[in-house]
Amino acid sequence: MTLDLLPAGQSARIVAVDWNVLVDEEARRLRALGIDNGARVKVSHRGVFGGADPIALAVGRMTVAVRRAHAAAMEVEIL
Protein backbone atom coordinates (compact mmCIF):
# COMPACT_ATOMS: atom_id res chain seq x y z
CA MET A 1 0.00 0.00 0.00
CA THR A 2 1.22 3.51 -0.69
CA LEU A 3 1.12 6.29 1.88
CA ASP A 4 -1.44 8.31 -0.06
CA LEU A 5 -3.96 5.46 0.42
CA LEU A 6 -3.39 5.05 4.17
CA PRO A 7 -6.57 5.90 6.11
CA ALA A 8 -6.51 8.87 8.48
CA GLY A 9 -5.57 7.84 12.01
CA GLN A 10 -3.75 4.70 10.84
CA SER A 11 -0.09 4.19 11.80
CA ALA A 12 2.40 2.66 9.39
CA ARG A 13 6.10 2.21 8.69
CA ILE A 14 7.69 3.36 5.46
CA VAL A 15 9.27 0.32 3.80
CA ALA A 16 10.33 1.78 0.44
CA VAL A 17 10.51 5.15 -1.27
CA ASP A 18 10.80 5.62 -5.03
CA TRP A 19 13.17 8.60 -4.84
CA ASN A 20 13.45 8.66 -8.65
CA VAL A 21 9.96 10.15 -9.03
CA LEU A 22 10.81 13.08 -6.74
CA VAL A 23 12.84 16.16 -7.57
CA ASP A 24 16.23 16.04 -5.77
CA GLU A 25 15.38 19.10 -3.62
CA GLU A 26 12.11 17.54 -2.52
CA ALA A 27 13.79 14.22 -1.70
CA ARG A 28 16.44 15.99 0.43
CA ARG A 29 13.77 17.97 2.28
CA LEU A 30 11.73 14.85 3.06
CA ARG A 31 14.81 12.99 4.31
CA ALA A 32 15.79 15.99 6.47
CA LEU A 33 12.34 15.82 8.06
CA GLY A 34 12.81 12.14 8.89
CA ILE A 35 10.63 10.74 6.13
CA ASP A 36 12.68 7.79 4.88
CA ASN A 37 12.75 3.99 5.03
CA GLY A 38 11.90 2.70 8.50
CA ALA A 39 10.14 5.88 9.65
CA ARG A 40 6.90 5.46 11.55
CA VAL A 41 4.18 7.76 10.29
CA LYS A 42 0.50 8.40 10.91
CA VAL A 43 -1.90 10.26 8.65
CA SER A 44 -3.30 13.03 10.86
CA HIS A 45 -5.64 14.53 8.28
CA ARG A 46 -6.02 15.39 4.62
CA GLY A 47 -6.80 18.60 2.78
CA VAL A 48 -10.43 19.03 1.88
CA PHE A 49 -10.14 20.64 -1.56
CA GLY A 50 -9.26 19.15 -4.94
CA GLY A 51 -7.80 15.71 -4.37
CA ALA A 52 -7.19 15.89 -0.62
CA ASP A 53 -3.86 17.70 -0.92
CA PRO A 54 -1.84 18.13 1.28
CA ILE A 55 -1.64 15.16 3.63
CA ALA A 56 -0.63 15.93 7.22
CA LEU A 57 1.66 13.25 8.66
CA ALA A 58 2.70 12.75 12.25
CA VAL A 59 6.39 11.82 12.21
CA GLY A 60 7.61 11.42 15.76
CA ARG A 61 6.50 14.59 17.56
CA MET A 62 6.29 16.64 14.35
CA THR A 63 3.45 17.20 11.94
CA VAL A 64 4.63 17.42 8.33
CA ALA A 65 2.54 18.30 5.29
CA VAL A 66 3.36 16.34 2.13
CA ARG A 67 1.88 16.42 -1.33
CA ARG A 68 -0.24 13.51 -2.44
CA ALA A 69 2.23 12.82 -5.27
CA HIS A 70 5.05 12.48 -2.73
CA ALA A 71 2.99 10.16 -0.54
CA ALA A 72 2.20 8.00 -3.59
CA ALA A 73 5.95 7.35 -3.99
CA MET A 74 6.15 5.75 -0.52
CA GLU A 75 5.29 2.13 0.21
CA VAL A 76 4.12 1.50 3.77
CA GLU A 77 3.20 -1.42 6.00
CA ILE A 78 0.38 -0.98 8.48
CA LEU A 79 1.36 -1.33 12.13
From TrEMBL:
KW tRNA processing (keyword) present: no
GO molecular function list: transition metal ion binding
Pfam families: FeoA
Source superkingdom: Bacteria
Keywords: Iron
SMART domains noted in UniProt: FeoA (SM00899)
Ferrous iron transporter FeoA-like domain span: 1-78
Protein's UniProt name: Ferrous iron transport protein A
